[in-house]
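Q: Here's a chain of 460 amino acids. Please give me its 3D structure as tokens.
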Amino acid sequence: MKRHILFLILLLCACIPASSQQKNDQLWQRAESEAAAGKYKEAFEHLRDFEHAISANPNLSDNAKAAARYKAMRTRMNMYIRMHRPQNALEQIEKMEQLAKASADVSVQNDLLYNKAIFYYTVGQTDKGNAVFKEMTTKLTASKDYGKVDEVYKTLIENGRKSGSASMVAQAYSGYIAWKDSANAMKVADETNALKQQIQAGEQSIAEKDSSLASRLHIIYALCTLLAILVAALVACALLLIRFVYLTRKQKKTIRVLNENIALKAKFTSNISAQLTPALQKLSGNQPEVKALLDFSNHIQTLSQLETSTGETLEKEEIALHDFSEKLMDKIKDKVRSGVVLSTEVPKMTATFNKDMVTHILNHLLMGAAEHTPEGGHIRLEFKKRSVHKFQFIVSNTGPVIPEEMRENIFKPFVEVKDLTTGDGLGLPICQQMAMKMDGELHIDPEFTKGTRFVLSINA
């Protein structure tokens, strides 16, 4: 009987900490929820209760208590930022620094650097934000946590876009591009070192086996068997190498285009700040400069997403081509000049592709054709099946011919700094990136001389 009572007491003691910890977590989650809903008074009360509960919990170590209290301070800091009380937010950051150190938790200390960077950027102290951000990326890069740095940059770009701060978006994107190049170089170096170590280990293993051949004759037969296996492996590797060479040739053009884009973006970003200042001083939704900057920010975000989502599988669906093409042409009927003839040459069949991307590309090409085709002209949309797995959409118009010297750069972003209210020149580069993501390409037909003809090739 005594044993049963003792067992029940031990079981009850084991359950109490879990229940207490669960209540503490609920208090903090309520505070976060109230803060997100703008109910700051209720959130502050929940945080006070949370901290009292943490302090009174005898089952938590000092490090764990410091880490828990750090979360409460972080929530307060974010509320003060939303309430436009930077001095109070700064006081919370100072307390967060003490708690992060007391927690002895590297993840908490990294989180502190991230929140300090966001605070400095939010209150306009860009130099301090850059310094903290550099410290954080240096620590994460040293620990080879490249994915976390990439995530932090994307979060910073997204925060800038949501807040309408085009300068913050441009600056963050510039830093992201520079870091991406550096990270890629470090990844290549890490992979190279790993391969060297594998080679050295293999060479050492072979040397040990060679030294034992003189004393053990029977190992020769085992080595012959091993040699046969190695020959088979080499044949398999040779086949893989042939396939790799084939894929490399196919991807060579894609890599060259991406490298050129990165170099041009770096140059363009350094000059764009000269145009951001006068537009941001007017900060009115009715101002064309502000609208142009926001559109430019969205285009940069789209380009970034396309560049950083390489390798992701696209959703495809089977589309009725004739109805699909007619709907696209209907959208530009009110956009064309008097007497312009719209025609399609699309068979009544189906094809499988990513509908959103193809729609975006063809809409852009048709809108451009409507803008540049003179009165009495002709705009035509065609579909051609070139092979079992390859087909083309062709958009032609009888407008002005694009000069040959301009065709090389027309699909490249950031070729020149221009007045953004007249367009940022990113429409066709975005279309080209989408085409390449579908394992295809977008180009101008050089043999068409009666206007301009764009050819979108897609591999199904």
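Q: Can you summarize the key feature?
A: The chain is about 70% helix and 10% strand.
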